[in-house]
Structures are given as structure tokens and as C-alpha cells.
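Anyone up for a design puzzle?
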């Protein structure tokens, strides 16, 4: 049996933190799986045995080991924030306002709300941030 390429070692505090992740149902399935992989690795199980026991693949087990060895157990368990993620265009209040408008009666002469009609009241109020949310080009309102 060959030695593991990235052996996993956890301090007592780290191990208890990883065990809390495993027990927490507020964590995603992916996070709990990666935490289980780390715990079984510390206990000395082989990659193939871990993959079989957790119904994962050996590549996932090795990748978790690599992240843990290079960046620490948090990097192995939790996702990194997405660097180029666009910020939300509407906050909760703006989204609620848009939903309320879309659920209300459409303007006279219209059968239903269209994207252009949903955007018009916001533009008239001086707000033009909704355009990327509704995916329309900027409207010129007289």
C-alpha cells in the first residue's frame, strides 16, 4: 500500500469543528460529505474505502485531501465565494415591489404585464436599476 499523497491531520479543535459540520443539517450536503471524508481520512481509511462508504468517487476524496493539505480544512469543506459574481440588482424591498406590481391588474388596454410595462413605472419614479433584472435595454420615457 502506498503512502497517501496528501495526508490529512486535524487538531482536536479542528476535529470537533469538522464533527459539528457533519452533525449540522444547516450545512449543505456537499459540505457534510467533505467533512465526513476528512474524518474518515484522519481515522486512517483508504481513499477507495472512503469513496465506497460515502458513495462518492475516489477523485473527490483525493481532491478534498489536497485542499485540506494545501489550504486547511475550511477550504476543503466550504465553497469559496465566487469572485466575479454580479451583485443583486434589486434588494428585498425592490423585489417585493416588482412582484406586487406583476401580480396586480395590468394597465388599461393590456391583457397582461409585459417586461416593458413592468419596467415603465420604475423608470417614471427615477429608478433605472431594474433594467438588468428585467433584461431590457434602457427605455426613454417622455
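Challenge accepted. My sequence:
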Amino acid at each position: 500500500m502506498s503512502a497517501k499523497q496528501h495526508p490529512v491531520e486535524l487538531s482536536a479543535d479542528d476535529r470537533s469543528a469538522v464533527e459539528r459540520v457533519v452533525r449540522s443539517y444547516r450545512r449543505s450536503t456537499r459540505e457534510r460529505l467533505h467533512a465526513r471524508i476528512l474524518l474518515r481520512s484522519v481515522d486512517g481509511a483508504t481513499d477507495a474505502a472512503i469513496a465506497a462508504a460515502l458513495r462518492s468517487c475516489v477523485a473527490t476524496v483525493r481532491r478534498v485531501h489536497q485542499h485540506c493539505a494545501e489550504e486547511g480544512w475550511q477550504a476543503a469543506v466550504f465553497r469559496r465565494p465566487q469572485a466575479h459574481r454580479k451583485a443583486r440588482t434589486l434588494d428585498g424591498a425592490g423585489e417585493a415591489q416588482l412582484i406586487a406590481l406583476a401580480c396586480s391588474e395590468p394597465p388599461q388596454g393590456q391583457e397582461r404585464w409585459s417586461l416593458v410595462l413592468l419596467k415603465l413605472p420604475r423608470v417614471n419614479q427615477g429608478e433605472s436599476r431594474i433594467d438588468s433584472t428585467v433584461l431590457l435595454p434602457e427605455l426613454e420615457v417622455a
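A detail worth pointing out: The chain has two domains: 12-77, 92-134.
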